[in-house]
From TrEMBL:
Protein known as: HET-domain-containing protein
Lineage: Eukaryota, Fungi, Dikarya, Ascomycota, Pezizomycotina
Extent of Basic and acidic residues compositional bias: 74-90
Pfam families: HET
Biased composition (Polar residues): 141-151, 238-255
The Heterokaryon incompatibility domain, residue ranges: 321-475
Length: 1064
């Protein structure tokens, strides 16, 4: 039995404590202080000679540059990955982490006097405290910003406050009996014990959130049996990754069968590997401490690929093998290789990787998931996934295989890698700063390439599928040394890519913006990107964040941050959790233990609860708006589908990242399958419209009608509210009538006013789109010229006629000077838009207008009042017109509503302008046909203008080119979304990705913990229950501070009593 007081045991325990603290606080930059403290305290001498490994790793060959591992100072070693406490405390083997720490510390192997143990421990403890300061008692005081500008709080500190905050939320919502068990946290407990206590609290929270249904439950609409957490807890919460389940005796654990039902998309990827001979793996069984490794046997180009697979204790082969990170890709056409002399089939991308990594004269030892894991065994995959953190962190090199060049497709990635492998001591960035892209010409010539080809290679590399997979993201994160990037046999270090990434992105931008003489270069670049440059820039920023690991704080990444930005994909939906767990904190790993037979919906429900309650991230509902059978009574309406994160438009208003500026607090909790939140009922939904997803004409038509039916005239509003009306008698009369009309709508709050586009996009981007929808159509300048002879630079020349002899515009000279300015200023744009997007309504309105009984030729009473108001009794004239139009509007409304979903106030105001300009029926009878003729001509121009004509105009007229861009932007911003309006005049639009909207009992609510109001369907006022349809952007309701009580609402709106909402 091992002597507990032996020098080896003491050193082992001390090193465990040191590495654990480093793992906890993520302050490798202070490691030198710690090292020196150990040396001074212990008095050990020089580092002993390195003991040769029993198995030599595959060495470099002359024809292939061997990637030299470089230390990674920004994170800790493998214990940072949150692996099992039982493995961390196991002292029976030669633990690599502690061997590595011993080397760094320079510890000698000579025996020490055990009687000096207490002094030794005391000195080391003092050194630890000097190198690793304890967290402050006040959580807010420790939130110092990291390199990305975000405040950093220790994991322990965060969870200590989180438990207290959640208990406060529970106390406001439910009685004592309905809350999870609050743990008796021992703040002085060892790290692993503390992690277990927090995991138990998460477990208790999930139990009350997703209980087994009672037989008397009336909630038959939700599939409670499928989301009963306590039935599957054995497959979820463990005290550590390799021990038996919490609270469950070993004999009650249900074994996972080797094979089970496999989703079709997963089966398609595994098709080659499921044909392998089972004997390959039965002879190479694994235990908790071992892994399989393969050795790629040497060979030349054209030789069969042969590998040898064997089992090794992981601790014994640490830093003696490489690991491969790649995408599985298409299984066809299957490729043949030999594993332990047995012929098997693999996917072509892995075959290319093996060919690229194979050396001609020496074996190469490497870990490859598709081969080293038995893909036919769910049980093995569930267990081995738990080792992934250690497998990649203990590899001497992680090789990222992006792909291989093919004869059928030209590629420039090899040019990029040659540029990255140059040795210029930083001269490239200096020359670029002084001379721009031309300053790099000579450097590129030495690399046998040129700047355009390097840029193309960079773009191609950024667009490779490797960047978009869940597992590759984690594999890269876990690498303890700088990874190597491979394209075929060409390779470069991650350090070189990180060094040049900003430079390369700037070069791409320079080429994109240049008037470049070689138009083919720019054309090739745009074709390769195949998306707006802004979208590519977002992708590139995400790649930059990954390769620099800038978000690593406290030794781990933050689930809230990563899921907020996650765009990677996975074939198996469970890997959206299991494929990331090793890069999160240990509590996350203890809660989410891989189990590939667990129902995906239940796993996602547990993740949602963890993010909402323990990450205090209610806005997960905004970023993941796709729900499992939302509104259909199958699963809870708050249950996100984590495979479908929304990719917002660059102009979309997005939730604030609260973690960037403060420590967020939980505001929402899940109890009995319902998401509970406190807040206010903002208003009842009156109606909604669903925008088309593909037809641009239909989208613009809906947007224009919504903007002009649920909005007031922008120009009139500006004059009226700001008092900006010029000294114009008749404009003043009109504005008085305008104001009197709106005064009747006292039940509408002031949020009723405003343009849809401007209230949908981010305020700082207000200049990127016009105010009115019609101004975004490509032929708007053409219509303006034909209607009012308004011209823009280049338009006259592009039209090709003598504009000076073209005569007046279609809408000129229809009104007299009395109302001509008012019409041109406030109604010409509306009239043109109505011709394009509301023609049926407008044509009926104009046809009926001259002979309406209210002002027909035989209505002597009306025309007498008009005559008597001349010349200056404007008040009497205004009253006569308003009274008459009120009757006309009542008569025509039924006919209008048969062909249009709404009736616009604009028609009322247009009628005021027409009637103010007509002193008798004859003038009215002359005016209306002119408006009808002008409208028909403008509509014909709009419908007959071809895309080719627009392209020609855009090439010659800058404003047309801008409108073409605006048109595409509006389509991308609004397609598929819901427009809605409420009883009290709130108007809004569903947030991106919302799949359902309103029913007859829908309300808009503002609740604590969310950055946006929510749409609640089938709402029950008495119980507060309803279905969560999704988030919405409501004009006049600013929720970006995530607190319903502090939400910015219209000054004339009165909120009711705060209440608890229960989202089923």
């Amino acid at each position: 039995m091992e002597n507990a007081n032996s020098r080896q045991t003491i050193m082992q325990r001390l090193l465990n404590a040191a590495t654990s603290l480093l793992r906890r606080t993520g302050i490798w930059d202070k490691f030198k202080v710690l090292v020196q403290g150990f040396k001074d305290a212990v008095g050990f001498g020089q580092k002993p000679a390195t003991v040769p490994h029993t198995e030599s790793p595959a060495g470099p060959q002359q024809d292939i540059e061997s990637p030299a591992p470089s230390p990674r100072p920004d994170i800790t070693h493998h214990e940072a990955q949150g692996e099992a406490s039982s493995e961390r405390s196991d002292t029976s083997g030669a633990c690599h982490a502690n061997n590595h720490a011993s080397d760094v510390l320079g510890l000698q192997s000579n025996d020490q006097d055990t009687t000096k143990k207490d002094i030794l421990v005391g000195n080391i403890t003092e050194a630890l405290q000097k190198g690793v300061p304890r967290p402050l008692a006040n959580p807010g005081a420790s939130g110092q910003p990291n390199s990305s500008g975000q405040p950093v709080f220790s994991i322990r500190e965060t969870y200590e406050s989180r438990v207290e905050e959640l208990d406060a939320v529970y106390s406001r919502i439910v009685p004592e009996s309905g809350r999870p068990r609050k743990p008796k946290v021992n703040k002085s407990a060892p790290t692993d014990d503390y992690d277990n206590q927090v995991a138990e609290y998460v477990f208790s929270s999930l139990m009350v959130a997703l209980p087994e249904p009672q037989s008397s439950s009336g909630d038959t609409g939700i599939a409670f049996q499928q989301l009963a957490y306590n039935k599957l807890k054995d497959n979820i919460v463990h005290t550590n990754a390799d021990s038996k389940p919490t609270g469950s005796p070993a004999d009650t654990t249900t074994p996972v069968p080797d094979e089970g039902p496999v989703e079709p998309e997963i089966e398609a990827v595994l098709v080659n590997y499921r044909t392998w001979d089972r004997e390959l793996y039965s002879k190479l069984s694994l235990d908790r401490q071992s892994i399989r490794l393969v050795e790629i046997l040497p060979g030349l180009l054209g030789d069969d690929v042969s590998i040898r697979m064997d089992v090794h204790p992981l601790n014994e082969v640490a830093m003696q093998y490489e690991a491969l990170s790649y995408v599985w890709g298409n299984p066809e056409p299957a490729k043949k290789i030999f594993v332990n002399a047995v012929e098997v089939s693999i996917n072509p991308n892995l075959y290319d990787a093996l060919i690229s990594l194979r050396q001609p004269n020496r074996e190469r030892r490497i870990w490859i998931d598709a081969i080293c894991l038995n893909q036919m065994s769910l049980a093995e995959r569930s267990k081995e996934v738990q080792k992934m953190g250690r497998i990649y962190s203990l590899a001497k090199t992680v090789n990222v295989f992006l792909g291989a060049p093919s004869q059928s497709n030209s590629t420039f990635i090899d040019k990029l890698l040659k540029f990255l492998n140059r040795d210029d001591e930083g001269q490239a960035a200096v020359r670029y700063a002084k001379e721009g892209p031309r300053g790099l010409d000579r450097i590129c010539e030495k690399c046998q390439t040129n700047v355009p080809d390097v840029c193309k290679g960079f773009v191609e590399a950024c667009l490779q599928p490797w960047w978009g997979r869940i597992w590759t993201l984690q594999e890269f994160y876990l690498a303890d040394r700088d990874p190597m990037w491979y394209w075929g046999r060409e390779h470069a270090s991650n350090g070189s890519l990180k060094r040049d990434f900003s430079l390369l992105m700037n070069l791409v931008w320079d080429l994109w913006r240049s008037e470049d003489a070689n138009g083919r270069v720019l054309s090739d670049l745009k074709m390769k990107i195949a998306k707006p440059i802004g979208s590519f820039n977002v992708d590139a920023e995400r790649i930059s964040a990954l390769i620099s690991r800038r978000y690593r704080t406290d030794g781990f990444d933050t689930p809230r941050r990563l899921y907020r930005e996650l765009t990677a994909r996975a074939t198996n939906p469970r890997d959206f959790i299991y494929g990331l767990r090793a890069i999160f904190n240990p509590v996350f790993g203890r809660v989410f233990v891989p189990d590939y037979q667990m129902r995906t919906e239940l796993l996602f429900a547990c993740l949602a609860i963890f993010l909402i309650q323990f990450e205090a991230w209610g806005d997960v509902l905004w970023w993941y708006p796709s729900r499992y059978a939302a509104g259909k009574g199958v699963f809870p309406s708050w249950l996100p589908n984590f495979t479908q994160r929304i990719v917002p438009h660059e102009l979309d208003v997005q939730p604030l990242d609260q973690a960037a500026v403060e420590k967020p607090e939980p505001k929402l909790v899940v109890l009995n399958h319902r998401l509970h939140a406190q807040g206010y009922n903002l208003d009842k939904v009156y109606g909604h419209r669903h925008l088309d997803k593909t037809d641009g004409q239909k989208i613009f038509q809906e947007l224009w009608q919504f903007d002009h039916c649920m909005n007031n005239n922008h120009e009139c509003h500006e004059f009226f509210v700001k008092g900006a009306a010029p000294e114009d008698l008749w404009l003043g009369v009109f504005l008085d009538m305008y104001g009197s009309h709106y005064a009747k709508w006292t039940f509408f709050n002031s949020a009723f006013r405003g343009a849809l586009i401007q209230s949908t996009i981010k305020p700082e981007d207000g200049e990127k789109l016009p105010r009115q929808v019609a101004e975004c159509i490509p032929c708007w300048d053409l219509l303006q010229w034909h209607a009012l002879r308004t011209t823009t630079p280049g338009l006259s020349e592009a039209l090709g006629h003598d504009v000076h002899n073209a005569g007046p515009g279609y809408l000129e000279n229809i009104f007299s000077p009395r109302m001509g300015t008012v019409f041109r200023t406030a109604f010409a744009d509306f009239f043109i838009g109505a011709c394009l997007f509301d023609w049926n309504h407008l044509s009926i309105w104009l046809n009926r207008f001259p002979n309406a009984t209210q002002w027909c030729k035989g209505n002597d009473k009306y025309w007498t009042e008009i005559q008597e108001s001349l010349p200056d009794n404007t008040e009497k004239r205004a009253k006569a017109i308003a009274d008459a139009y009120s009757g006309y509007e009542t008569e025509i409304a039924p006919e209008v509503m048969r062909i249009s979903w709404c009736s616009s106030f604009y028609y009322t105001f247009l009628a005021y302008v027409i009637l103010l300009d007509c002193d008798d029926h004859a003038s009215l009878a002359r005016m209306i046909p002119k408006l009808q003729t002008a409208g028909e001509k403008l509509r014909n121009i709009y419908l007959s203008t071809t895309s080719t004509q627009i392209e020609d105009l855009a090439a010659a007229v800058p404003s047309v080119a801008t409108r073409v861009s605006h048109y595409s932007t509006v389509i991308g911003l609004f397609r598929g979304r819901y427009l809605l309006w409420t009883d009290g005049g709130f108007r809004g639009i569903s947030c991106p990705g919302v799949e359902t909207c309103c029913d007859k009992k829908s309300v808009v609510a503002i609740v604590d913990g969310l950055s946006f109001p929510v749409i609640v369907r089938d709402y029950d006022e008495k119980t507060g229950e309803g279905w969560l349809a999704g988030c919405a952007l409501i004009r006049g309701a600013d929720m970006l501070n995530r607190d319903a009580e502090r939400a910015v609402l219209p000054p004339d709106y009165k909120r009711g009593e705060k209440r608890v909402f229960k989202f089923r």
